[in-house]
């Protein structure tokens, strides 16, 4: 985190210098927003910090638009934070966006969350099931059958991580709650528990490379392995939602990784409350896409971001501010994503 913080500070200084002498925007009321992310060992948090820093540096001096990133338990908690207006922006898994908008899955009792809107697709959430190597007989996700009765770290309580892991495993015929003794911790502690022999495996969906996974492979080497998904397993795990697609983690991504890992991934996206100021959302969206190199410098996962991919797989309609930017940029917005 120290090197990442150093990059952020340097970037902030660069942008601050760049904005000296810029014409002042018309007097406007200060607008400060909170962006909910996830635990600090994954990808949501550093990318959220980068988006918040970019917003502060580029928009606060001239438009009085600020943003701060906060950690959380992930997508499940983030939806509640948005609903209760304890956060105005959040990074969500595509699956939880689908749940929220349709009032499905673990959010069925809450009903459809129609106060939420999309801003942009961000990057893919890569499924990374890492287990002790001596339990991985086939090298595929089916090896989790051999871990029944073991302690497993599959995410914090009420997190998007535990929710999506339960969804995938259920579709593969494994009830995570009865099959394993679950340890409810974040990504960093999951890697620590794996190294200390306190769990036999962990499920850490995130942008690749993921800090916690890097930490585990650096410490344990060939004592652990990441489980592949066959095409048949991928289709079965998706459950007919068409959210998960093939994702290859190339050899060398993690310490000592000699071969490609054939896994799967679902989209992550930036969500916002529907009642937020249109100009603010427009300016934030515009600023993100005009400064992608800044985000790329903070985390490799954002290197897949591109304007032409901004609308891919969004599970709910766009906020009017985001839609305004995309129209100006010449994107063709599907009817299902038009602001409501």
Jot down its keywords.
alpha/beta; D-Maltodextrin-Binding Protein, domain 2; 12 helices
Task: Compose a concise summary of this entry.
The strands form two sheets. Strands 1, 2, 3, 4, 10 and 11 form a six-stranded mixed beta sheet that branches. The chain has helices at 2-19, 44-63, 75-83, 94-102, 160-171, 176-179, 187-195, 211-220, 231-238, 278-290, 292-298, 320-328; strands at residues 31-36, 65-70, 89-93, 116-126, 129-132, 151-153, 181-182, 201-203, 224-226, 245-249, 261-273.
Overall average pLDDT: 91
Percent range for β-strand residues: 15-25%
How many domain units?
A: 2
Counting DSSP H or I runs of 4 or more residues, the number of helices is 12
CATH topology of the largest domain: D-Maltodextrin-Binding Protein, domain 2
Radius of gyration over C-alpha positions, nearest whole angstrom: 20 Å
CATH superfamily (homologous) name of the largest domain: Periplasmic binding protein-like II
C-alpha geometry: globular
Structural class: alpha/beta
Q: Percent of residues in helical segments?
A: 25-40%
At the first level of CATH, what is the class of the largest domain? Alpha Beta
Query: Largest sheet at a glance?
Result: 6 strands, mixed
Q: So what's the oligomer here? A: single chain
N-to-C terminal Cα separation, in Å? Answer: 40 Å
**H-E order:** HEHEHEHEEEHHEHEHEHEEHHH
